[in-house]
Every structure is written in C-alpha cells, then in structure tokens.
Automatic annotation (TrEMBL):
InterPro entries: Cro/C1-type_HTH, Lambda_DNA-bd_dom_sf. PROSITE patterns: HTH_CROC1. It comes from Enorma phocaeensis. Keywords: DNA-binding, Membrane, Transmembrane, Transmembrane helix. Residues 7-61 form the HTH cro/C1-type domain. Pfam families: HTH_3. Coiled coil: none annotated. The chain crosses the membrane at residues 83-104, 110-129, 172-193. SUPFAM superfamilies: lambda repressor-like DNA-binding domains. SMART domains: HTH_XRE. This is Helix-turn-helix transcriptional regulator.
C-alpha cells in the first residue's frame, strides 16, 4: 500500500518523529510504526487528522491504494461468504441433530457429543470471520472506500474501530452463549415435536 510511504514522507517533510505524529493524531507511536510499515491501515478518523496535519486531501493520500483495497474487499467478501455458509450449515445440522436425537430418545451423551462435533466447525467459521475483520482491516478499507465515494463511513461504528484487546474473549463468550441457546432451543423444539407425535 502506498499510504504507508506517504505517511512517512509527509512526517519526515514536517520534521516530525513517530512520537510527535502519534501525539498529533491521538494514537500510539506503535500505531504510527504499524501504518508506516503497512502492518495496519488507518481508519477514516485518523486519515482525516493526518490529511489536515499534512495539508493534503485524503483522496491524494489513498488514491493509489484504492484498487488494492477493492480487491481485498472482494476477496474478503468471498471468504466471509464461504465461512458464513459453513457456519449456517453446521449450525443448522447441530440443531437438527439435537432435535432428532431427543425425538428418537437417543443417549444424552451421544446427542451432546455429536452436537458439539457439528457445532465446532460453525464456531470456527464465526471466529474466522471476526479474525478476518481484525487482521485484514476489511472494514477500515470499506469505510475509506465509502468516504471517498461520498457515503457515510460511520466512523463511530464499533466495527470501524480497531478491534479491542478482548475481541477473542468476546467471541468465545458469544460462542458459549450460542451453544447454550442452541441446546435450549433444540430441546424445546424436540419436546414439542415429541408431544405432537405422541411419544
């Protein structure tokens, strides 16, 4: 990405250290280092601050990156779609198994073991989607593209901010809650079906 070089060039033109620039745009020195080495991409808010400080437009800073951002967004969208299909397919298979297992009065340990085995790929797919957002900064790219097109970049959206320190813990917690809710729904649906069938 060309933006990494541009940030460094403008910073050096102004005679600023990475720490000086970090203080000016309210981020850490490590964040500036990550931007300049192309490890991460700034969000729209940071780009606005940088463009004001450097006296250039956002468009001039990111114009050359735009095709690469679009390619990354398209590739990321395809991968997320595939992971979404895996998540839905295995999630529904898990729910169906629990319902069938209860209706057929199978051993509880067997129902739970097979259900967990089916739920694991769904959880891994959901985790991968979050990981892609975190590692590849796809939402940051989407936000920048929206801004350049005159749309609302929604800079205050939680997805447009750098993923927090506890994103893995949140994903694990949501997965556990999803398992509990899924099992409760499965047992409830199985009970209703069982009564309807007169078992």
């Amino acid at each position: 990405m060309e933006l990494a070089k541009r940030i460094k060039q403008h910073r050096e033109r102004l005679g600023m250290s990475q720490t000086d620039l970090a203080n000016a745009v309210f981020v850490s020195r490590q964040t500036i280092s990550n931007w300049e080495t192309d490890r991460t991409y700034p969000d729209v808010q940071s780009l606005l601050l940088l463009s004001n400080l450097f006296g250039v437009s956002i468009d001039s800073m990111v114009r050359e990156d735009s095709p690469e951002m679009r390619e990354a967004l398209a590739a990321g969208s395809k991968r997320m779609h595939r992971f979404g299909i895996v998540m839905a397919a295995f999630g529904l298979a898990c729910l169906a198994w629990v319902i069938v297992g209860i209706v057929l009065d199978l051993d509880t340990a067997c129902i739970v073991a097979v259900g967990a085995a089916l739920f694991i790929p769904a959880s891994v797919a959901a985790f991968q989607i979050d990981k892609m957002r975190h590692d590849n900064q796809l939402y940051a790219y989407q936000s920048v593209e929206a801004y350049l097109a005159g749309g609302d970049p929604d800079v205050n959206s939680r997805y447009n901010q750098r993923a927090g320190e506890h994103w893995v813990a949140r994903r694990v917690l949501l997965t556990v809650l999803a398992i509990v809710v899924g099992l409760c729904c499965g047992w409830g649906a199985a009970g209703i079906i069982s009564r309807l069938l007169g078992n």
